[in-house]
Fold this sequence. Notes:
Elements: E1 3-12, E2 18-28, H1 37-43, E3 46-49, E4 71-75, E5 80-81, E6 88-89, H2 98-104, E7 112-116, E8 120-122, H3 124-128, H4 160-165, H5 171-175, H6 177-180, H7 182-187, E9 198-199, H8 209-214, E10 218-220, E11 227-235, E12 242-247, H9 249-254, H10 266-273, E13 278-284, H11 295-298, E14 302-303, E15 310-312, H12 322-334, E16 338-341, E17 344-349, H13 352-368, E18 373-375, E19 387-390, E20 393-396, E21 403-406, H14 408-415, H15 418-425, E22 427-429, H16 430-438, H17 442-445, H18 453-468, E23 477-479, H19 482-497, E24 501-502, E25 508-517, E26 521-528, E27 531-539, H20 549-564, E28 569-575, H21 578-586, H22 592-607, E29 610-616, E30 638-639
Parallel strand pairs: 9-11, 11-14, 25-28, 28-29
Antiparallel strand pairs: 1-2, 1-7, 1-8, 2-4, 3-4, 5-6, 10-15, 11-12, 13-17, 13-18, 14-15, 16-17, 19-20, 20-21, 21-24, 22-23, 25-26, 26-27, 27-30
Helix pairs in contact: 14-19, 15-16, 18-19, 18-22, 20-22
Amino acid sequence: xxxxxxxxxxxxxxxxxxxxxxxxxxxxxxxxxxxxxxxxxxxxxxxxxxxxxxxxxxxxxxxxxxxxxxxxxxxxxxxxxxxxxxxxxxxxxxxxxxxxxxxxxxxxxxxxxxxxxxxxxxxxxxxxxxxxxxxxxxxxxxxxxxxxxxxxxxxxxxxxxxxxxxxxxxxxxxxxxxxxxxxxxxxxxxxxxxxxxxxxxxxxxxxxxxxxxxxxxxxxxxxxxxxxxxxxxxxxxxxxxxxxxxxxxxxxxxxxxxxxxxxxxxxxxxxxxxxxxxxxxxxxxxxxxxxxxxxxxxxxxxxxxxxxxxxxxxxxxxxxxxxxxxxxxxxxxxxxxxxxxxxxxxxxxxxxxxxxxxxxxxxxxxxxxxxxxxxxxxxxxxxxxxxxxxxxxxxxxxxxxxxxxxxxxxxxxxxxxxxxxxxxxxxxxxxxxxxxxxxxxxxxxxxxxxxxxxxxxxxxxxxxxxxxxxxxxxxxxxxxxxxxxxxxxxxxxxxxxxxxxxxxxxxxxxxxxxxxxxxxxxxxxxxxxxxxxxxxxxxxxxxxxxxxxxxxxxxxxxxxxxxxxxxxxxxxxxxxxxxxxxxxxxxxxxxxxxxxxxxxxxxxxxxxxxxxxxxxxxxxxxxxxxxxxxxxxxxxxxxxxxxxxxxxxxxxx
Length: 653
């Protein structure tokens, strides 16, 4: 096979300088199919260059020599990151820094140009002896959704200083400098170097330039942005308009992780709503775009475009800190009045009068901070209701017992979607499986995930494979195991029926279940009225004897639930293993074996009307511990032994 050795540069179109980044071998006029399989595998990953026929130089869309025939380029080594902010170096640098930039460079080919030096002919044997690094498939930037205009974007801007003045807790004031203080923003970079240098062009976004200018969301950049990133649009729920999103992964990789969003867990959100009888809901109009950004910070939120880049003047949707800032701002508005889910506001009340008073307070806060809101769907703004749909959940607070279920419209789309059909057939792409699995909202259904151990196990393996891949192939066809398909079919049946789930907190049983395990034995005891009233203990045998201690603790818990818990209601459980406490609280574990054991426990508890409430205790305060280390069970009823530690049990969840 005749090959040509060349030296190549990738030129960043946003700047005048060029840097050598990698050596390539180019085979002109030959298709990938012409090469033998063994040679293709030996040479790595092929990347196709888009042929140029006009011979001109177009900024942002690549520029190169006139080419009329297809050209295949084989990368000896992928681009390497010489530091944060997108600067690139030669292939001889540390190969361990390749994977992060490879993921970031998807869609960058449109803004890079390749120039050739005088070639020297070399043989294939010479080439194969060259140090080789994993190649990187470079694809053009994603085009915007054709024909979909941007959704109506408000020109309103929130008075963040007034909002911070209302923050009695200080959680919003903690993240406010990321919008207004350039020094604090620069300090959030991991390497301490906020110079940037990354430029990834967008494709098909030029037609939205006038819209972005008119509403003040973005303006033309007068100088090179620190980060000029790829923008794209995604269809909104109405199917007629699109939402602008910035692929801010280069910026996110360069900055430290944001703090907690303070977003409530969905099950806690549902439980709090069902403690009330009336609610008013509304959402922020283009909520992220209502947050202004200081001019000196906006240069980090650049949009790579043909002709002239643009700078976002508002909170960047796609930036890792944006959800945290938005959620903490929303919590200020609904403090002591209700709940917030990012840009969804829910004002609650036990009575109609209380709900209307809370709505009046919320309106004053929104007006003081200049937050623009609108009603959800066809509802009238500020209308108090007892039956509504919020965050994909339909609530009925007017019933004798408050209840909830999945939004029927969403449930229908999930059950009858094309992705569901492909997954159940056993031959679906990784993308289709991820969309179907991600749409299973377990907490709304009140269905413990441990009942679907095979489905969870396959999802975990597939996710681990995609995360570990240098360039995940989401359109690759995967074989879904029959066991996972059976469990998904059972879940689909539940969603199709979409039964109402009755809320409310059950009464306490008045007893406490203590369970513990050692390397050899397990014990479970039931406490009631300050005494042990029943108990069981045993020795691990067979495969269980060699199991991990977390699984042994789960087995001890299961034995205690099945053998000792009979009274319906909320059953408190004291466990000194945090992994088991977390699994019981969530309804699932990361272990397939633990999910099978937990599923048995929860099925028994469900038939008996028991709701398990796990608490963590330190090992020194675990009253069942002595009975796993050779001490025989006492004659019941028996006095409680003195714990080795006086630490008070506390609920981790």
